[in-house]
Every structure is written in C-alpha cells, then in structure tokens.
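User: Fold this; tokens only.

Assistant: Input:
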Amino acid sequence: MNFRQRLKNRDGQLRLRLILLSLAVMPLFLAIGAVVWIVGEQAKNLEEAQIAAVKPIVLQARKDELEHFVQAGRKVIAHFCANASFDPRAREEGRELLRRMDFGKKTDDNYFFLYEMDGTNVMHPRLPVEGKNLWTMQDQAGTYIIQRLLAQARAGGGFVEYFWNRPSTNQNELKLGYVEFVPECNWMIGTGLYMDHLREAENIIRGRTEQEVKTTRDKILLIALAALLVVAAGGLVVNLNEQRTANEKLRAMAQKVVQSQEVERTRVARELHDGVSQSLASVKYLFESADIQLDRGKMEAASRALKLGIGQVIDVMVDVRRISHDLYPTILDDEGLGMALEQLGREFSTRTSISVDVTVGEIGGIQKDAAKALYRFAQQALGNVETHALAREVKLSLRQNKGIFLTIEDNGIGFDANALLKQRRDGLGITNMRERIEMLGGIFSVRSNPGQTALNAYLPPDAIKVDSRHANI
C-alpha cells in the first residue's frame, strides 16, 4: 500500500471517527439544552405560582395588623375624649399620645391620623397638614381621599386603598388604610401601610428562584463538559491504536460512544433530579420561614394557606422531575395501575385524615400512556378534594369492561360544574383533567352538588390496548 493510499485511508478513518464523536456529542448537548430550557420555563411558572399564593396571605396579614392597631388607638383616644368633660385638656392629651404611637420601624411610615368629620385634619405626625381642611383633596386616580375615608368610617369602619404622599420618600405611593369613627370625639381615626411589603415578598421569591435556577444550570453545564471530555478521551485512545485493528476499534468505539452517551444521560438525569429537587425544596423552606413571620394576626388561617402553597410547590417539583426525564411513579411499572391507585389513596388518607375507599376490579394489560393519564387524573382529583372540597370521605373506583372506567366521588361542598367547564382556565384543574382523558380519545364527565361530587374518566379499548409501540402496565 503506497503512501497516498495510506493517507486516504487514514483520512477516511478520521472522518468516520469525527462522525461518531459528533453522533455522541450532539444528542447529549441537545438533551442538555432541552433540560435547561425546561428548568427555566418551570422555574418561571413556579415563581408566578408562588407569588400568587403569597400575595393574599401577606395582604390579609397586613389587614389584620391595621385593624388591630386602629382598634387599639380608638380605645385610647375614646378614653381621653370621654374624660374631656372633667378635664378640658384630655382631648389634647389623647391626641398627643396618639401622635407618639408609631408602630413598626420609623422608616416604615406607620403612624395614626385624626380628622374631623368635615375633613379637617386634627393630627398628622408626618406632614404639615394639621388644621387644614382636606375635603377636596384628590389622589392621582381622581379619588377624593378624605371623603372616601370619612364615608368608610361612617359606614362602620373598613379598608380603603388610595395613593398618598409617603413622608420618607416624598413620593405618591399606593397605601392600604383602615379607618373607624370615634363617636366620643366625633373624629375619624385611621392608619395605613404602604404596599411595598408585597413587592418585597415578590422580589425575594424571584431572586431566590433565579439563583437556584442558575445553580442548577451551572451543574448541568459542568456535567456536559465532563461528558465531552470523556467522549473526547475515548476518541483519543482509539486514535492511538494500531492501524491493523482500526476497523475493529472503530466498531468498538461506536458501541462505547453509544454506551457512554446513555451513561452520561443517566448522570445528567440524576443530577437534574437532585439539583432541581433541592433547589425547589429551598423555596419550600422559604415559605416555611414566611409562616414563622406571620405569627402576628390570624395565624391558624395563615398557616393553613401557607401549607397549601407548600403543597403546590411540591406538586410542581414532581412535575419538573417528570418532564426532565420522563419520570412517573415506579409502582406503575412494578405493580400496575391498580396498586398505584391504592397506594395513592393510602398516602392521601394518611396525609389529610380524609377517609379514602379504593375499589379496583379485575384489570388487564394497559398501555403506559393510558395508565399514566389515569394515575395523574386521580392524583389531581384528590388534590382538588384536599384543597377545595372540605370533604370527609372519598371513594375511588377503577373497573374494566372492554374500556376502563375511573370514578372519584367525595362528600364535600361541591361546585358549579357547568360554569367551571365553560371557563378557559379554572382553579380546580378541571380543564387539565379533561384534556388528559380526551387526548387519548376518552370521555370525561363531572357532576357536582353540595354533599356529592363525582369525576368520571372513561378510556375506550383502543386507548388502553397494548401493541408493539407501547409498553404495558
């Protein structure tokens, strides 16, 4: 063999090796890129879900604080006004005492204010408006602020949102105020909180989520680099082999590259599972920390709502794991759909103390997609029961008669099923449940009345039968 032929053969082998390396590396990077994108999208969805869950909790806590502070201040000023007939200075003393009754930090602009019922300011510890009639004052939205506050006080007290000059920043900001009428003085007493508390909570959630996503993305990229180095090292070893065994080595390398690719994908999946789960778990701990911060106010209700938010975060974590590497409950493979539903019922009953009666009939082979859809259907239905139904008992029934039927009933408060199904999106997840079933050619139905709600899913024989394209469960 002359030099030119050897060079030609060597070039051909090099091209073949480069092709094999490309076949190994490109799918790996495509998979990692897809995983990074999925993590980012799920993080955004999680961030919005967390903010939506935290907002009403923080707002209610602020409302409870305002009402408590105003009622305490009203009692103080009413006491002094009641003694005004005995001591002419009592009203003035009460007003000055209230002037000093700040709550929270000084920079929070948390103070009380007093107005005559004609709109004249009696006391304002921050702004030079005392003695001025502010009856015609309007905010940037065109609201007559003082008129609205006085009307709310006359109506028995309550909350009012308006824009007001914040003394510490000299900027007009949205404020949540609470006012009450003090008949002993014929005054209106009130206080308020600026709504930056909600923005602070949102910024904390966004910042923490972005940091965790960045950490997870960095781990994935490190794994990709390690995978590339492993594949490149394998190619280098093959290039150093003797020429007489080149063809055999190329075949061995091809097999090794494929195996290496699968190993690295497994490693990426494992790292994604651990990393993303740990990252989202840290967000759960943030909620638990927020729960401690809500020890002021109606803590029992706030704690229940916060724990519900934590449960939603956990659900999102499960979904992220499922999307990242097509994970679903292994019991579906190991024991089948019937056993998976029984375990789901037991775990739900243990966690919520709601009685669950699971009835599973004789079930034949079911293709994987159908089993997974029915399992997710049951999982989401039980989640709705826990969150919304206020039920004491749940009945879950699975039976097969040509097609397969899944029914979930509860004795909760019920809901307007027709109105909910007409909505494009719904809080109970009915749309998602219906789409899971109808996507496989099945039928979804729901009926609900106070004391009885039933969700029904039916998959026809064609949707559940096992063929060469699907693994069976």
